[in-house]
Amino acid sequence: MSQDILYREADDRIPVTELGHSLYAPRRHLQVREVRGRFQRWRRGLNVALMSAFFALPWVTLDGRPAIWFDLPGRAFHLFGMTFYPQEFMLLSWLLIIAAFALFFVTVLAGRVWCGYACPQSAWTWWFIWVEHRLEGPRHRRLKRARRAMDVDTTCRKGLKHATWLAIALATGLTFVGYFTPIRDLLTALPRLEASGWAYVWLGLVAAFTYLNAGWLREQVCLHMCPYARFQAVMFDRDTLTVSYDAGRGEPRVPRRRETGTAEAGDCVDCGLCVQVCPTGIDIRDGLQHACIDCAACIDACDGVMDRLGRPRGLIRYTTENALAGQPTRIARPRLLGYLVALLAMLALFAVNLAERTPLDLDVERDRQRLFRVTPQGDITNVYTLTVRNLDNVDHRYRLAASGLAGLTLDRQRLEVPAGQSRQLVVEASVDRHAIHRPSHDIQWHLEALDADISLVRDSRFLGGTP
To answer: Which PROSITE patterns match (predicted)?
Structure first.
C-alpha cells in the first residue's frame, strides 16, 4: 500500500520542463532617429533654457557671494541674497511637499510631460543623442556602421563622440560641485590639487553617472530605475492628457505602396517612423505604456508623414482616453481639483512662512544646577545661557531685555553678532525678593536689533522662593 502511495505521489508531481532560452530578454540597443517639429522645438527650447540656467547660476554672484550656494561646512544655504540655516528646515519641508503636489497635479493633468520635457535624464540623453547624430551621422548611417567591422573612420568618429560625451559629463560634474563650493575657487584649486577630497570624489561620481546614464543606459533608466514610471499608472485616469494613437482612424494599417485601391485602408501607412524616433523604443500604436515619456517625438514624426500625404494631422496626438472613445473630456474632476487645492494651500503656507521669517534666532536655557540664588542685597537671581544666531547677511547689534516681573533687571543688555554666526552668553536676571509671590513666574526675553527692524520674543521661567 505504501508503494502505491509513493507511485501516486510521483504521478502527481508537476513535470519540469527545461526552457531552451533565457527568461531575461537581452537589451535592444536603440539608434534614435532625429526628428523636427513644433513639439521638439518647444522641448529643445525648454531644455536649453533649463540647462543654461544650471551651468550659469554657479557663476552668478550677489554681494560677493554665489547666488546659489549650499555651504555645507558653514551649515547655510544661500539663495539669491537670502540665507537659510538648519534651524529653518521647515521651509525645506514645505518646498518638498509643494514639489510633490505639483508633480501629482501635472501627472493627473498631462501625464509624464515632466519626463519628456524637463527631466534631467531626458535632457542630457537628448543632448548626447544630438552629439551622436552630428558626429556619426543620421540613424541609417549609424546602423550601417554598427553592422560592419570597425575601420579608421568609424573609430575616429566614435572616439570623438565619447570624448565629447566625457567633456560634457566633466562640465556637468564641475557645475554640480560648484553649487557646494564657489566655482571660481574650485577651478583654481582643482589643478593645484588644493581642493577638498570630497570635491574630487563628487566631481568624478557625477561625471561618471552622467556619462553612463545619458550615453549608455539612456532608456534603461526610465524603464527600470526611475520609480516615477511605476507609480504613474495609479495617478492616470480616462481624462489624463497623454500621447495616444487614434486606432479608429489609423487602422487597418496599409503600407503606402500597397494602399492604392484599398478603400478600407486607415491613415497609418506603417512607415515605422514613430518607433524610430522614440527615445524609449516603444510603438505608440500598441496603446498606453509605462515606458512612454510624453516627449511627442512620435507626434512630430507622424505629422510630417501626414503632411507629405496630404492628410490631416493628429493620427498621433495629445488626447485623452475618453476623447478617443468619443466621450467628453472632463478637465475639472475631483482628483485634479484636490491636487490643485492642496498645491495652492501649500504655496500659500510657504509664502506666509517666508514672509514672517525673522533673520534672527534665540535659544534660552535656564541654569539647572542651581534653581536660584539670593544676593546679600536680598535680590533673587536666575542664571540663563542665551544663544543668539544672526541669520542675516550683515552684522547686527542687539539690545536684550526681559519682562514679566516688576523690577526685573539683566546684567548684560547689549551684544553684537557677525553675519551668519552665533554667539553664546551667560546672563543673570535679578529681581527684588519682595516681587516674588510664587515659586515660578513666566517671563519673556526680548531681543531687538539696534540697526534694523528685527526683533523676537522667547518665553522662559523665573524661579524663586516665596517671601
So the answer is: 4FE4S_FER_1, 4FE4S_FER_2
User: Which residue ranges does the chain devote to CATH 2.60.40.10?
Assistant: 360-463
**CATH fold of the domain at 360-463:** Immunoglobulin-like (2.60.40)
Q: Please name every residue paired with 130 in a beta bridge, in sequence order, or none if there are none.
A: none
Q: Render pLDDT for 146-170 as a digit per residue (tens, 0 to 9).
A: 888 899 999 999 999 999 999 999 9
What are the C-alpha distances in Å from 95 to residues 79, 99, 115, 343, 354? 13, 6, 20, 11, 11
68-93 as b/e: b if 16+ CB within 10 A = ebebeeeeebbeeeebbbeebeeeee
Query: For residue 75, what are the CA distances in angstroms to 78, 83, 84, 255?
Result: 10, 10, 9, 64
In the predicted model, what is the mean pLDDT of residues 291-304?
96
Average of pLDDT values for 128-134? 97
Distance CA 168, CA 135 (A): 15
pLDDT band of 13, cuts 50, 70, 90: low
SS3 363: strand
Query: Which is it for strands 409-410 and 61-62: parallel, antiparallel or unpaired?
Result: unpaired
> Does 252 or 436 have the greater pLDDT score?
252
Nearest to 384 by CA among 367, 396, 372: 367
* DSSP letter for each residue of 297-325: HHHHHHHHHHHHHT--S-SEEEE-HHHHT
> How many residues comprise the chain?
467
Phi, psi of 170 (to 5 degrees): -65, -40
Above 60 in pLDDT, residue 8? Answer: no
Query: Is the dihedral angle over the CA atoms 35, 37, 39, 43 positive or is it negative?
Result: positive
What does the mean pLDDT of the chain come to? 90
Q: Do the beta carbons of residue 176 and residue 202 sit within 8 Å?
A: yes
Task: Look at 437 and 154; give whichever has higher pLDDT.
Answer: 154
